[in-house]
Amino acid sequence: MKLLIAFALALTLGACSSLGTVISTVGAATTVLGQVQKYYGHAPKTVFAARAGFDIALTAAAHFKQDVCPTVTSQPFCKTVVPILRTGAAKTVAALDIAETFVRTHPTLDATAAIDAAEAAVTAFAKTETDNGVPAK
Length: 137
Fold this sequence. Notes:
Layout lengths: L1 H10 L7 H8 L5 H11 L4 H21 L10 H28 L6 H20 L6
């Protein structure tokens, strides 16, 4: 349920210039990328764990949108950053869906490669967030 709420918030990302401006506006103690990498370091190799890593990243994006870029004019960088986050989230969902479909349709086969690809997509999304100044939640 938490993932659905975060995903719904991410889908509502409106239209968010410089990384330095973003970081100075929102601050950054721990990065989203660091949180996701730490989680995957201890998580089981399952599609559900891959999705949980995405939940970490997507929650950060949703809070960023809600708190920092609620409108296009909230900050000068909102018009640029939010579409980048939207695109990254959509690509990540697609990779997670592929992994989940593989697991469901081939329950007896080794799904490690599909899960690794999904985790790589989540990690890439988290890196995009970190590179664009989205703070960890």
